[in-house]
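Q: What does the predicted 3D structure of Copper resistance protein D domain-containing protein look like?
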Amino acid sequence: MEFAAPLVRLLLYGGATVAIGRASLTFVESDTGQERRAVRLSLWVSAIALVIAPLALLLLQQQALELTFTELPGLLRDTTWGRGWMQLAIPCVLSAILLPLRSTRTTSLFLLLAVLGVAAAMGGLGHAAADEQWPLTSRLFDAMHVAGVGAWIGGLALLMLAGAGSVGGAAPTASEWRTFSRTATVMAPVVLLSGVGSGWRRVGASTITAVLASAYGRVLFLKVALVLVVLALGYAQRRRIAAGQVPARKAVRSELLVAAVVFCATAWMTGMEPPGE
């Protein structure tokens, strides 16, 4: 059970990232056909993850508190955790319903609203929920972080999958990569700044020595180092795109692989106690 909660959180992060990436991309919305099968499959898998993860979080909380099923309504109604779970579960289910659908103007709008709801709610079950001094600020940082990562890494993953299954001229074009590059260029600073803000709220006035002495702090520094690697890889591909080329597939895979390790570190950190709390 020690690894159950991080795995469930990782499932939630993955599903939310793909959903936000889907909402941020326009070319995926109009694509159909055999060459996009990998994208369609990823959307269905992410939709399932967005349903399973909140339910699994609820079951883990039930087991941790040793509650019966008849006591669950009280947990959801009368506790901060329960209300936060409801705020997360509703947009997750809506996103899961909309995510695999063929895109129209209406479904795209509702998907965007739903995934923004997921981003806003994810802080309600994490460390931001425990910030009694500046709770809204902490949750805003978390929401910006989740939305930025989703638009950047989720969009990159879907573009990569679209190209991986392409035939003929169906792979993402240089123009589509330029559109994504502009989005990533905006979202990367959002991710970085919101991450710094969240880290500040977690560690508080703790010294670097105190932060490094905690398990949370060591994982945090590892995460920061990996994020810098992702930024460096992304910057290199941005230069290729600006020169009219498409990104090198191997470099994109490396960027996504390092980002996946960052997700794992984040899922593990969420269950740790920061030195500033």
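A (community wiki): The structure tokens above were generated from the sequence. The mean pLDDT is 85. The domain at 3-270 is CATH 1.20.1630 (Formate dehydrogenase/DMSO reductase fold).
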